[in-house]
Amino acid sequence: MYEWNEMVQFMVDWVDGDLATVPSLLTMSEQLGYSPYYCTKQFHSLTGMTLRDYIWQRRISRAALELRDTDDRILDIAVKFGFSSQEALTRAFVKAFKITPYAYRKAPRPIPLAIRSEVFSPYHYLIKERDKMRQVHLQEAEIKIERIPAHKFIGIWDVEVSDYGQFWGNGHDCDEVSGTLESISHHTLPGQLGQTAGWFYQNGQKGYLYGIPVAEDYNGEIPEGMQVREIPESEYLVFFHPPFDYLKDNGEVMRTVEQVAWSYNPESMGYQWDEDSKQDYQRHFPEGYGYAVLRPVKKLPIED
């Protein structure tokens, strides 16, 4: 049923594997065993853009990160990502971001980078594998303490929703939000993952947030449609599962961690929850970090 989700994900992998020498549509179609026309049609249906536009957007976005993070010549960056000349990169950059590569390098600002498309999810994997028996052995959630210094958080707080799926279904454009945050990822608070989700509490109601933690003294531009809030220093109880196979185990890992996180009594460790003025964090980087829910705590008062 979801064969084409997997096929299009293969095409995305080929594109992102080497943006300078992307395999031709003909080569991809021969590998997949379908006509170029049908491959193009399915790619557009699942990603919302043509294969050609996707390649162009990913090339120009990766070039932007190179301009921001390296001292490589603009010409070398152009060639690295498949542009015929520095002038070709400049024309594409201005078209995409309304700024020249040189001006962006001198003063990086939030821009809507194109992120990698993901069209084959754990849900599709389970449908595909539903007739195969597989015994999953997942470890229990680890519990540890982490201190996060005072910082600022740039992002979106939505009090109308309480989870990831609801958040993106409530008028927030995932590609635009994630791409814009990626353009300021070099400001990520040291020791943190970068783009981070979580929960907050407003007048007794639990909402969902998405953004990026930055240093306490950050005074750069705030992307349109987002806001910045100051988060005080705090200790957090971290409920954690180490790296896992996203497609196969994502749902079970998240359930395992969250079941412990939302039912745990911190008094056994000498703490109490401290979520009135602070927010919970949700880290989700399956292959590199794992999955974690972080809840702020403070020491229990010492009894006389």
Number of strands: 9
End-to-end separation: 65 Å
Average pLDDT number? 89
Secondary-structure element series? HHHHHHHHEEHHEEEEHEEE
Taking the sheet with the most strands, its summary is:
9 strands, antiparallel
The proportion of residues in beta strands is 15-25%
Low-confidence stretches: none
> How helical, in percent, are the residues?
25-40%
Overall form: globular
Radius of gyration: 22 Å
Number of helices: 11
Structural class: alpha+beta
What does this structure look like?
The chain is of the alpha+beta class and 304 residues long. It is built from eleven helices and nine strands. Strands 1, 2, 3, 4, 5, 6, 7, 8 and 9 form a nine-stranded antiparallel sheet that branches. A hairpin with a 4-residue loop joins strand 8 and strand 9. Helix 8 packs across helix 11. 29% of the residues are buried. The mean pLDDT is 89.
Provide a brief overview of the structure.
By secondary structure, this protein is α+β, with helices and mostly antiparallel strands.
